[in-house]
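Q: What would this complex look like in 3D?
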Amino acid sequence: MAEPKTKYDRQLRIWGEQGQAALENASICLLNCGPTGSETLKNLVLGGIGSITVIDGSKVEVADLGNNFMVDESSIGQSKAKCVCAFLQELNDAVKAKFVEESPEALIETNPSFFSQFTLVIATQLVETSMLKLDRICRQSNVMLIFARSYGLTGFVRISLKEHDVIESKPDHFLDDLRLNDPWPELQRFAESIDLNATDPVIHKHTPYVVILVKMAEEWANKHGGCLPSTREEKKEFKDLLKSRMIDIDEENYKEAIEASFKVSTPRGISSRLRQIIEDSSAEVDSSSSDFWVMVAAVKDFIVNEGGGEAPLEGSIPDMTSLTEYYVNLQKIYQAKAEADFLAVESRVRNILKRIGRDQDAIPRTTIKTFCKNARKLTVCRYRLIEDEFNSPVLPELQKYLTDEDYSVAIGFYILLRAVDRFATNYNRFPGMFDGEMDEDISRLKTIAVGILNDLGFNGSTLTEDLTNEMCRFGGAELHAVAAFTGGIASQEVIKLITKQFVPMSGTFIFNGVDHKSQLLLL
Amino acid sequence: MADPVSQASSRWRDLDKLLLRPGNLVGPNFDPGTELRDDLQEYAKVLVVGAGGLGCELLKDLALMGFRNLEVIDMDRIEVSNLNRQFLFRLQDVGKPKAEVAAHRVMERVSGVDIVPHFCRIQDKDLEFYNKFNIIALGLDSIEARSYINDVACSFLEYDAEDNPCEETIKPMVDGGTEGFKGHARVIMPGVTPCFECTIWLFPPQVKFPLCTLAETPRTAAHCIEYAHLIKWDEVHGGKPFDADDPEHMQWVYSEAVKRAELFGIPGVTYSLTQGVVKNIIPAIASTNAIISAACALETLKIATSCSKTLSNYLSYNGLEGLHTKVTEFVRDKDCPVCGPGVLLELDTTTTLQKFIELLEEYPKLHMSKASVTYRGENLYMQAPPVLEEMTRSNLTVPLFDLMGKIPKGIVHISGTATKNDKKTSCTRKLRVLFKVIDGDTDMDTATGS
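A: Here is my prediction, written as structure tokens for the whole assembly.
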């Protein structure tokens, strides 16, 4: 067996050992193991997911050899679930792989409690009626659910669960929290200890930009009645002021200060994103609240009390030109403040836990610490039941998609993907499956799609002929590349959901394989 | 057992929906029918460059999208850290050439597909090798390698008298790249859509730490690591080259970095970070590779068959915060030295090949040293291997004009070393050579007759 640390090195650099442990503890159920399903699982098995259960009632046919890598000639006539499961097991012996040879539709119908044993269910290639039923089952038993479908050159991915809270959202670009325009006493004192007019050129060009900006912002405010640069002219003037303090044209620290000068003008207080979370009704906690919301409640109290309107300090600073000593001291000042903020939040967490009748130590310190460090980046994702979306979509959004050219293909495919399932209910096959009935199928599908739009109160004429024809041309085909794409997206989202890191997609992702102008529809 | 014909048609049941049926949202000259599928299987030749995270996926995807004639080139051997995403490799394959194992595994599972592996550097193959493919699919992780293949593919491109690209000389490329949860897929039709060089700004050169920071004012763990790696190693080991693949070397750098970090009170030096910084490791996961390769394979099928519209021309994918995909239509750089009509060089008819090669070093847009020169597939001078060098050496004293059959203008291909961003890279360029006609010096019969 390979040293897992080496084997998983390239992904541990993304989600760390905690993320990896979450994956290794997860138990995944796959419904239907055609190419879409098997490719989704392949990506998870390689990454070391804990256990998989493959559910499929069909036998391998010749046509499967044309789009599914996990079956081969020797599999023909055998259980598809068994063959796919065997191949997946070969990819990673650390994964517990099993299969159930049964049709997912039948299982949904006859044994709904079956699904409650899993962390997450991946449902592929299900038609509407089964989707709606499974959605209700998983919602009720609190099992995460993700749908993936490949259909000709289109398809979709949709997450369904009540709520998903992310502490470590790890955004790519996020404004750092330096408090340049509102320094706390220790930072203030440190800045005062350094003379910007130092005559030693080595000191002058190694004074960190944080110190330069704290001092210059204060200087500016003193001259401008306590205000900071806000208009474009003022901001430019502030930059010129910084420039005038350079004693040499290649002082990197001053260049950095000029580049970061906008940070002195950032508004104080918390972002609208965080405000929305602390004002959410779930922040009114009781004994049934999750740890996440208990910590939100604590941070909320912190903000109005010790925080003075600010969230707990993150504590890390970016690299900047500086003497080592200055930089290390600056780091310590930010970390000390972050630690103090954390201790304040922690004691609030303990008090809240006590108040709602839970064990005061129910939430570990490390969790609270991580929470504080990420307070400004918290993310809450909620998903509607598919049935609700289908029956009462968000009308202004739908209106927008139907009239905005950027969305016309995606919304067209969205309606048509629903229409093909209704077609299948009526005719027991997908439109365009047989060459001989192409023309009839096109007009039948069109009637159904127009009907769906009419039911929602919209004119069916927005649907183009080209798209309807294309949908019939697809004839329900599951193309390998499309399956690998939608399966890839599905597995990516599964990883985010299980590791509780990064932000999962919202809405429905509609794949557009014609020109790749895929869209997320927030209905 | 079903007969082979109906077995073939039922095996490709799903793909046939796309290849056998007419559609409205298709590419130019789409001609659906069983012949299209048969031609795809019989004649379309695709080269997959790289058998790593993207390459493994590409080979599988192309084999299952109906392609039968594939070749793959990769110089690397399988490592344990590949196994979290390069799904064609197993633990017992560690140490074997990637190209060979990947080709073998896909052929084992998809009957009828033929994959020829090439375990070598991309520079080891001549232009002829690359020219036999209809499409080149790139699954690479380095800018240099992309640039090289781009040079090669663009070198086949010819322009007509009006400076329009000649269609039969266009060598399409499909390029993918990933980093963590992000990636891109693009289609390059040299002469029509921007080539890699036209949009080289998409790949800004990596920022290096200034040496004075490393030596005098280190602040981060990475500074301590780079100090040990770039400065201390040479001080102590004078002359012995550092080998990032030697665990003892890495361990030495790590422990030196720890010492330095302690000295300055800097936190965060770990063995894993040391490896990451020294080897410039880019995080990689299976799912992103799958997504990007699938988009590339789909576009490859569309280029080969016109069965749908094509991506025009750059797809970016970001799964970090929610899910974002975006298609951008980049535009060509009309003066691109790689995919443009070619750098124009005016020469005297008396200029010898030797003199010509020297000129290339000085020429502003080229700065190419140690150039090898070919004209219409014929080697005029080759720097290597020694056998070829010896065979072509006698040409050096002959005027280029004579070597090119005394025509007033023509296109030569040169390959050698160019210096870009202080870094030496191998590249090939296309040159339009124009000879200054001196009265009575040109034999017009030869010129028109060639």
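A: To summarize the key features: Chain B touches chain A through 77 residues (CB under 8 Å). Confidence is low (pLDDT under 50) at residues 441-450 of chain B.
Q: Very helpful, thank you.
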